[in-house]
Description:
The protein folds into three domains: 4-156 and 283-351, FAD/NAD(P)-binding domain, CATH 3.50.50; 169-280, FAD/NAD(P)-binding domain, CATH 3.50.50; 355-468, FAD/NAD-linked reductase, C-terminal dimerisation domain (Enolase-like, domain 1). 31% of the residues lie in helices and 25% in strands. It has 13 helices and 21 strands. Strands 1-2-3-4-5 form a five-stranded mixed β-barrel. Strands 7-14-8-9-10 form a five-stranded parallel beta sheet. A five-stranded antiparallel beta sheet has the order 17-18-21-20-19, sandwiched between helices. The termini are far apart. GO terms for molecular function: dihydrolipoyl dehydrogenase (NADH) activity; flavin adenine dinucleotide binding. It catalyses: N(6)-[(R)-dihydrolipoyl]-L-lysyl-[protein] + NAD(+) = N(6)-[(R)-lipoyl]-L-lysyl-[protein] + NADH + H(+). NAD(+) binds at residues 189-196, 212, 281.
Amino acid sequence: MAEQEYDVVVIGGGPAGYVGAIRCAQLGLKTACIDRWQDPEGKERLGGTCLNVGCIPSKALLESSELYEHTQKHLGTHGVRCGEVELDLAGMMARKDRLVNNLTQGIQGLFKANQVEWFKGHGQLQAERQVKFTGHDGKEQTLQAKNVILAPGSFPVELGCGPFDREYIVSSTGALRFEEVPKRLGVIGAGVIGLELGSVWRRLGSEVVMLEAQDRFLSFCDEQVANESLKIMSKQGLDIRLSARVTATKVDKDKGQVSVVYEDENGQHEERFDRLVVCVGRRPATDGLVSGPVELAMDERGTIHVNEHCETTMPGVYAIGDAVRGPMLAHKGSEEGIMVAERIAGMGSSVNYDTIPNVIYTLPEIAWVGRNEQDLKKQGVPYATGVFPFVASGRARAMEDTTGFVKLLAHAETDRILGAHIISSRASELIAECVIALEFGACSEDLARTVFAHPTLSEAVHEAALATLGHPLHIPPKGKRG
Length: 482
């Protein structure tokens, strides 16, 4: 017998789950959210991986490490003289933790304001849309729901040749908690997370070696952007080794080191590091999410099968965020949470998966939306390209930060914008205007005829649009489009 009844029960309190729960409550639905997250001290926190050990703490350390290196190496260019710059790593970590704590408390406050009931523990889907809740104290109760939203999030994948020991071999979570700067740091995986964490510790003083199994750097990015970013990051000091397949790891606690064996086209190699960060992907955290008798379609990785509206194979049960197809991005999960809440409330709502922005928060940042050039070539789509380098931007020169460019891709016949790719300082902010342009089906001429403030970095988007038409104003034209 169910003890409590709800219109919606959400399992998972990360960006997908808590946003979905809040939106459900705003729409007048009696809503409960079950979340099992606990910090290292055993305190329950909302926000999931993103807020506690992902997006937010990593960006805090990225920002702090950038300021540290900028003060050390670049302020003199602006006529600012400093004495000896010292690193207070404990203070940097404390700031990160305060930020996380304030934001998690903020979500708790939003739950109270919107009357979302927060259950602290584990939720498991049962038959007939019942959810078994097990508190951290081991006590159980059953919640009956008219609708269930599954938002369990994801967890880091371990290497088959060496599990996390949480001291010498760590996941991204462990890399956010080092108590001292490793003299030599190994990073397995030169993707989004690996690059961000490698960048943090390089700026703070580590010698960073990155081992990437693929033969192309950032193969999911536009090739021109990926090639440029490889040059920049290698010049900054990241030792990025491609086609490097790790075959073995071994911890030597007496020496306080990790040995890593890997193979590439030149044979077998061995490297020793003080710490090793493994960033080879994430998997949906769906183990134990559904009771045995319940038939919910999943694949072998634990990804839940859903349709375009995040409906599962069970009536009244939805799944969102990292547990379903598509990129594992917090903003993608949040939008799915909103869509599902509104559909439950009888509203027509959808997510445009073609206009979801992606960002890598290195310095310079890398951001993109829509299609890239190599895919358009493979598909035989006629297109025009417009590229504008920040070296020609007055604002970028004033900032002493002229690295990178904006690249727009437009259909050669209709002029409709197909994709946008940016590598620059603050690319994560600049990409938003390109997302809006794609969402509204804009043409490059629409951007070209829009007035942008001067001097700003965003003018580079304007100039890239002009370049697709063949008449940029602040770089030589390459030939007008017919």
